[in-house]
Design brief:
4 helices; mainly alpha; elongated; single chain
Length: 84
Amino acid sequence: MAESTQARIDQAIRDIVMGVFERAYRILDTNRAVLERCARELLARETLDENDIRQLTQGLKSESRESAPPQSETSLSTSQGATP
């Protein structure tokens, strides 16, 4: 494989990884209060069942359409058989 092709592939992978990292960070930052509440409960009780988690995460905010990944990233992952 040509060195320039490898460099383009490396950059594309870096861009995808950083984009997903930034998206995950935004989601966690947006829902920080819920995340901290879950962490406190987990520390206090050591285990949480499905019902506990559902109750604790009722205030989760979904990601807005403006901050969703570009269509090309989504179609790339689904076209390769991966689930988004």
